[in-house]
Amino acid sequence: MAIVTPFSGGTVNLPALGDLLDRQIAAGTDAIIICGTTGEAATMTHTEHIRTIEYTVEKVNGRIPVIAGTGSNSTETAASLSREAEEIGVDGLLVVTPYYNKATQEGLFRHFQYVADNVETPIILYNVPSRTGVNITAETYARLAQLPNINGVKEASGNFSQLQRTKNLCPEDFYIWSGNDEETAAICLLGGSGVISVVANVAPEAMVRLTHLCLSGQYKEASALQLDLKELCDTMFCEINPIPVKTALNIMGLEAGDLRLPMCSPSEASEKRIRATLAQYNLLPQG
After folding, report:
1. Which of 222, 191, 183 is nearest to 206 (CA)?
2. Boundaries of every domain in the chain
3. In a 10 Å sphere around its CB, with 0-12 CB exposed, 13-18 middle and 19+ buried, how is residue 149 labelled?
4. Does the pLDDT of residue 287 top 80, yes or no?
5. What does the alpha-carbon distance between residue 84 and residue 176 come to, in Å, rounded to a whole number?
6. Among 2, 5, 21, 54, which is 20 to 30 Å from 246 by CA?
7. Would you give the DSSP letter of residue 126?
8. Which percentage of the chain shows pLDDT scores above 70?
9. Which of 55, 59, 141, 154 is catalytic?
10. Across all residues in the chain, what is the average pLDDT?
């Protein structure tokens, strides 16, 4: 799952992050993504970014894998961050497509190849065209899958035709994780390996159950649960991630802290919807 970063007083609140990490591990979460989109890594200083990764590795202490977001639109910066995270001892790296530059497919291949050549740690690509303005094609995935430490992709394009073509072109050991909570069961049905979840911040047990049902082939039960979670998934994206999920966690009494500009508090209507949805799913604090 992709965990939020609690901010307080202009700094990362590491003890609060530690509490959130412990909660996820207790709920059965399979792995932690730290400093991803949900973690607002784009707003963090280099020192904060590295220290947050370091703290997470220390706190988790081998209980589950830790995967660090180390992507950048600068290829050299992405490679440098990846090397530093590797030295800290992460289990994997999540490297997003270089945003703003709008690289060609050849440029994307060379970008990821350069990062992969600079580390030995397994890499998960991250394809999220709605935020970066660029899409990795199935043909480029097939080329990247030949690199020994590129293990798969967090696929958030919402393009199921591309997903199927990717599965047909890539080897079996190139794994695909859903990057959209509401697509988890559908992507698993097409051969995906689970979800890198935002919704798991607020409902970890439900997302763990959904993933495990899918991976054990219990698709009737998985489908029912996916449909049941639809409103929760939609509400957690009623504004740009991670605005709703951090708001939800704070309402739940879990210390997610502040949002950093340019992220800001949700509208009054969105906050009302978040509260109502949390009540619907019995996620509000009792008493």
Report:
1. 222
2. 7-218
3. middle
4. no
5. 25
6. 54
7. E
8. 100
9. 154
10. 97
| CATH 3.20.20.70 for the 7-218 domain, yes or no | yes
| Bridge-based pairing state of the strands 123-127 and 92-96 | parallel
Structure tokens at 34: 């730290």
Residue 71 has pLDDT above 80, yes or no: yes
Nearest to 71 by CA among 44, 106, 89, 105: 44
Q: Which two tokens stand for residue 217?
A: 């082939």
Q: What is the pTM of this model?
A: 0.96
Examine the pLDDT at 286 and tell me if it is beyond 90: no
Out of 55, 59, 126, 246, the active site residue is 126
Query: Which residue has tokens 């639109």?
Result: 73
CB 41 within 8 A of CB 69: yes
154 is catalytic: yes
Say which residues have a Cβ less than 8 Å from residue 117's Cβ, sequence separation at least 6.
none
